Amino acid sequence: MLFNSIEFAIFLPIVFILYWFVFNKKLSKQNLLLLLVSYVFYAWWDWRFLFLLAFSTFLDYFSGLKIEQATSNAKSKFWLITSIGINLGFLGFFKYYNFFVTELSNSLTSIGLSVNPWLLKIVLPVGISFYTFHGLSYIIDVYKKRIVAEKNFVEYAVFVSYFPLLVAGPIERATHLLPQVKKVRTFNYDQAVDGLRQILWGLFKKIVIADNCAMYANAIFNNSASHDGSSLFIGALFFTFQIYGDFSGYSDIALGASRLFGIELLRNFAYPYFSRDIAEFWRRWHISLSTWFRDYLYFPLGGSKGGTWMKVRNTFAIFLVSGFWHGANWTFIAWGFLNALYFIPLLLLNRNRNHIEVISTNALFPSVKEFFQISFTFFLTVIAWIFFRADSITHAFSILKVLFSKSFFQKPDFIGAHDTFYLLIHITMIIVMIVIEWLHRDKQFGLQFNQKTLNSTFKRWSIYTIIVVFILLFGGKQNNFIYFQF
User: Fold this and answer.
1) DSSP for residue 302
2) CB neighbour class for 168 (10 Å; exposed up to 12, middle 13-18, buried from 19)
3) What is the three-class DSSP state of 478?
């Protein structure tokens, strides 16, 4: 079920009414309702994969109990390895089987061995990377004794399959979400209103920004050989805002919807395109995944405590694995590798923690230095996104070759092929998004108003109305969320 669909617009109010007006007298009934509607939400995509979600949930629940009950470290480690192995086995089969078989076949062919690879028509279960990582973090935390094993199966199952985060995150931790699932929740009007604002802002970014940017980005990337350098750069810019509007829009809707039920999810985006260096960008982009790899991969490898070689090795490891997590294509690995190259100089110069605070806290505009830092970081990010979007490594390099040629300074041939009026409208919408998020860069999301500066009900509702009008008038063609494929 898509967040930007009529079905979800009907589904969410029904669940809200049942949750607060029918099942509100007992926590166990509320949690059972959340579990049931989460499975309905997932089944709307393909009910046949419910068994995989249920199996993964039961496996980690049972393994957690066995780890806690183990009388020796060897037994607890056995259940840890068993759970991780089976989970990664399912993830590897559905997501990477054809990739590895094809690469093996190509390698054997290159040395003169003729192979006919046995490829499978595998449908990637939506959200498998996300709910698998939910379970893995839980099992590891139980093994490390950071949390006790959950005895209530329904409560654990809600943690894994809670519908706002089920198919595209954020990647939650048991230490953060499970206590909220177990705690009695009372309706909070201000929290619910804040949630509705965040949903509205997420829909604007998805429907108005991402879906329209997708139209232009696809037109350019799918016909890159016929475009000049300036047009290819415009295409990269459109994809840069497409993926941000799409994924951060999803996260805003997820967090907003969850607030309607009195549950706070982990923040996943913190205005990453306002970053002053790549290290800051990665503290602000897909935060739940970045911190997951930091805590469960980077730190166990030694983090940055060792010598220079260890720091470099661990940095490349986390970025390459992060790239491969996104999909079975060398383009994602190249994207991760390039971001590691961006990051290494900051790490070696001990500048990777320079920008922790919100930029230009007490100023309306950034300083000249900050402006150039943001612009340079944004440019590096745009270049990296080319690898993420390209069909292949060869395709990415062919785009870069033309982009960094003299044709970069020519008038874009792309503009004449599209309606200039609507193109300008869509560019204006991007600017509107940037301005609103810049003005609220110290808030959790773009429409989280400061009541002191916007204390008029008329002003607030005027802004809501304008956003709704933008969505109705300028919304693009409905597309799936990009991160559904990961």
Assistant:
1) T
2) buried
3) coil
Active site residue 286: no
Diameter over CA atoms, the chain: 75
d(CA 456, CA 445): 19
Residue 48: exposure state from Cβ atoms within 10 A (0-12, 13-18, ≥19)? exposed
In this predicted structure, the answer to whether residue 118 has a pLDDT above a threshold of 80 is: no
The alpha-helical segments, DSSP class H, found in 294-419 are: 308-325, 330-348, 368-389, 393-403
Three-class SS of residue 471? helix
User: In the 8-state DSSP scheme, what is residue 22?
Assistant: I
Token pair, residue 246, equals: 């799409």
Question: Each residue of 3-32: pLDDT tens digit?
Answer: 888 999 999 999 999 999 999 889 999 999
Structure tokens at 237: 């810019």
**pLDDT tens digits for 306-315?**
788 898 999 9
Structure-token pair, residue 426: 């869509």
Predicted pLDDT of residue 116:
72
Cα three-residue angle 307-293-285, rounded to 5 degrees: 110
Mind listing the pLDDT tens digit for each residue in 189-206? 999 999 999 999 999 999
Burial readout 231-265 (b: 16 or more C-beta within 10 A, e: otherwise)? bbbbbbbbbbbbbbbbbbbbbbbbbbbbbbbbbeb
User: Could you count the other beta carbons within 10 Å of the beta carbon of residue 419?
Assistant: 8
Going from the C-alpha of 8 to that of each of 67, 110, 212, the distances in angstroms are 38, 50, 21
For residues 405-425, give the mean pLDDT. Answer: 81
| DSSP letter, residue 264 | P
Per-residue pLDDT reduced to its tens digit, 275-302: 999 999 999 999 999 999 999 999 898 8
CA distance 202 to 247: 9
- Helices 330-348 and 308-325: crossing angle in degrees, nearest 10, is 150
374, 389, 203: which is closest to 272 by C-alpha?
374
Give the integer Cα–Cα distance in Å for 387 and 336: 9
Under 8 Å between Cβ of 443 and 269: no
Which pair of structure tokens corresponds to residue 478? 């409905």
**pLDDT tens, position by position, 124-170:** 788 889 999 999 999 999 999 999 999 999 999 999 999 999 988 79
SS3 at position 394: helix
CB-CB neighbours of 367 under 10 Å:
11
Q: Which of the residues 326, 355, 395, 418 is marked catalytic?
A: 326
Buried b (16+ CB within 10 A) or exposed e, 62-89: ebbbbbbebeeeeebeebbebbbebbee
